[in-house]
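[job 4417] fold queue: 2 targets
>>> target A
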Amino acid sequence: MKIYFQKLIPDAVIPTRATRQSAGFDLSLCGQQPVTIQPGETVMIHTGVAVVLPEGTAGMVYPRSGLASKHGLALANCVGVIDSDYRGELMVPLYNHSGEAYTGSPGERVAQMVVTPVLLPEVEEIPAGEQLPESERGTGGFGSTGKTAGGENAK
């Protein structure tokens, strides 16, 4: 299986894994100037690269733990999803949860992309009024699992 990256901007950094066993490919800030993210602000970070993912996979973009824990930076959309047929520039929407501005430098690693398999099932509608297949859980929603017959949470 192969993944292909293309620089769309000459000074872009081709994503790599930090170690042989790293799950994610590091995505880096691309540009000529540092980028400052003010407290409570979201900034779209350019990576300057496009990707060709293997069919049947998706790229899941996650924040880097160091930026999140030390500087309060996280993805504005929590987890980004890159479809295998997307060919545009990879962008990272970083949100600053902290009370201080953060300035990122060109080439700095800002997020990571993990390639994961996806299921692509066909959709079939069950007409209204027809019974859905039975399940152990049924229609129990939020907080419904882990309860005993008397309604108390199981210990």
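>>> target B
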Amino acid sequence: GRTAGDEDDAVAAWRELGGAVALKRVGVRHKAASGGLVLNVSDEQAVRTAYRRLGGTVLVERMAEPGTELLVAVRRDGIVPVLVLGLGGVHAELLDRTVIVPLPVTRERVAQALDELGTDANDPLATLAIRLTELPLALIELNPVIVRAHQAVAVDALADQEVSEP
């Protein structure tokens, strides 16, 4: 996807991407909760309507294939740095099902945490979670990560400052 600064640019981005798109307001932390997200937009009039509703600069992205939506986050802004795995997507706060794993993690512990959520662990998802813990950020949240049989795709992310050295 790419950003668009006006209605005509959003339509041009939709045409470039082909198929259904998501429009996301840029600079908003919790897009779904704040009304900054429009999904499955698939015709020119719908793109124009969505852009007018969101306004400003928007990100126009091709829709991801459907799958299980999870939240994968690393937080180093508390007493103990942790990996957070949970049911994600637009209902993350409503569902409030998470497993918190102190860092560092192992592939086995990630698989166990996913099992605790009632979600099948797959290698791409475990790899994504482990690699996320290697980034030097105080907070990084991927929500949702859409998980399919052999694929894990992060479709939105939030990151906050690098961890300062003691």
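[job 4417] complete. Note on B: DSSP finds five helices and ten strands in the chain.
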